[in-house]
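Sample 3 of the quickstart, ligand magnesium ion:
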Amino acid sequence: MPMTSRRSSRLAVHQRQPRAFDPPRLPDGHRAPVSSYFGRHVLDLIKLKERLPREAYQALLVTLRTGTPLAREAADTIATVARDWAIAHSATHFTHWFQPMTGLTAEKHDAFIDLNVTVPGELKVLERFSGSQLIQSEPDASSFPSGGMRTTFEARGYTAWDPSSPMFLVESVNGRTLCVPSVFISYHGDSLDHKTPLLRALEAVDQQAVVFLKLLGDVDVRSVGTTLGIEQEYFLLDRDHWAQRPDLALCDRTLLGAASPRGQQFEDHYFGSIPPRVLAFMEELEFELHRLGIPVKTRHNEVAPMQFELAPIFEDANIANDHNALTMDVARKVALRHHFVCLFHEKPFAGLNGSGKHSNWSLVTDRGENLLEPGRTPHQNLRFLAFMAVCLKAVHDHADVMRATIASANNDLRLGANEAPPAILSVFVGDLLTRIIERIVDGDAGEDAADFVMDMGVGKLPQLAQDYTDRNRTSPFAFTGNKFEFRAVGSSMNCAGPMAVLLGAVADATGKLSERLKQKLAGGGDRDQAVLELLREVFRETAPVRFGGNNYSDEWKVEAARRGLPNLADTPAALEALRDPKRTAFLLERTVFTELELSSRYNIAIERYIKHVTLEAETLLEMLRTFVIPAGEKQLAGTLEVWGGLNAAMTARLVDAARGATETGARALSVRVAELSTVLADVMSVAGELEALLDELDGVHDEAKAARRLADEVRPLMAKARVSADRLEHLVDDELWSLPKYREMLFVR
Ligand code: ADP
Ligand code: MG
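Result:
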């Protein structure tokens, strides 16, 4: 029998060596320290300051600080400097780099070259990059998802430079391209991307938090920023394995495949020693990211085999999000050089851990104080508790809309599904903080606010840091000592979507608490007392959303229902919140989204869900018909042949001496024939059902209904098909099974 390509690739993969790359070196041959090339491919403020005339640099700073548009001359000067810097670094092209709602980043390259005709007939080529080219692109790009926002005659959007995120160089084999981080908006000014709402939400939080701080007594804070540190989980697969599986190539996940006997049960992968080929990939990836000014710091194995994590040092949320989008892009490219495919899918393998994008965030004043970190003085700690109340209120009031922002066909397999934690958004604050909150709720703080704050504030809060070393890893939204970690965000998502809504909710909660505090202070009483009173009310009304137990348990589902918390198990259910004007009003009020943008986001999300699940179902169907069933048939034919041969031998009395054993063998074979036929028949019948159902759904034009039925009928049917297909995998000769198996994809590396 010829060697199957599956088997030859198994051997090839096994023999692959870690790939070396050529990092910058010191004269003595040692690797140059990261600090010597960090940010080399970024046109950051330091480089701009060196290169720009003073007025142009000042104009840029004013724009950054106040958001006012840049004057034309300054833009021209910056563009010229950017061009010269880029060309000096081998760039031939520039592009506005943006984040449309495809989940990927987008670029449209233009060469720097331009024609200059001074004397008619004398053509001269030169490199040009003007201020207007820097600031805004020609309206174009009509085929990005807009959720019906743009009618055909105005099907245009344009990109506009976001000066708060620095320009950078992207590298290909033969050259470089200057990337200008941009927003993407429709001709009428509505956002067509992830970044714009995030920028608006950051501004809303800034405004509301400054007002709240003034009421709390911090009168000299001028602005409040949001920090974000994104832990990114991913899987690596060898390209050969990947290429032989249509499900991975088309859907980014395995739609079938029997579990490997070895999985994550030994718990030996997490933080284990990193496989050499993977480490080589990580080293090259980090090198590329560091040159792009992305401060990646942590790398380690995750829980599942071939699952890993990378985490940068936190930054301003807008930059951190751009950096994460760029990181995913670069990781995909670098992985290919190492003969890997980098999978950001939330659940590429059934039965193993899924991947998240844990979004650590906090609020920081222009004086550098972290508002979610307990301090040393009673005032700092009261302020900390006030912002804790803000966060609890944000999630309590807007959990359902937040849930909608993390809903996708992929993330449904990680949240809310049978082997995954439920999709209930609760907040974990830890034991010590829970005790403090409960004392406040119980009125233990008594009449003497100063005493209470003194007592718990200075004495206990600094211990918080220790309290979080062993934290609750099952919580979708966990306080970790000086920041919150929004863990429910899916690994393949653009973080700006969930962050914009989360920060919209935070702005809303801050605004509401400011109003209430203002009223309490109007009486002219003691400020600390008024704040404590407000905290008591807010901690009491948000109590249902606080949960410190095991979020993965079934009891929690029951308890959450009793508390009245929404449990929106899948995307079609979760997205409904976006269609309810009462639920989304806060996003309009806080100017994070327009009404049109919200409806377009719903349309895009529901459409994506339908396309995704339909694609998966069609891919599975094809795999069943062209891989699984033929393999089962061949096996059955082979088994029948042996069985027939035995029976013939017995009939012809050729085996008299071993008659007993032969009879036993024939009987065992008949059981195997029956089992094979049954399982094969099961696969065929589910495939038939699936096909009929897909045909029927093709005629359902109401998108909400179609999505509902895909979740309720198609996905369960796919799961049923998989059970039979996976049983068949165990009945079929390894040589006949052409799809790489779980054990190979995860353990041959
Ligand atoms: P762990 O790995 O235990 O979750 P780390 O301290 O390594 O915790 O932090 C994880 C991520 O959180 C990192 O990206 C880190 O930079 C980020 N982070 C730490 N402090 C803050 C903060 N104040 N705001 C936002 N992100 C933060
Ligand atoms: Mg982690």
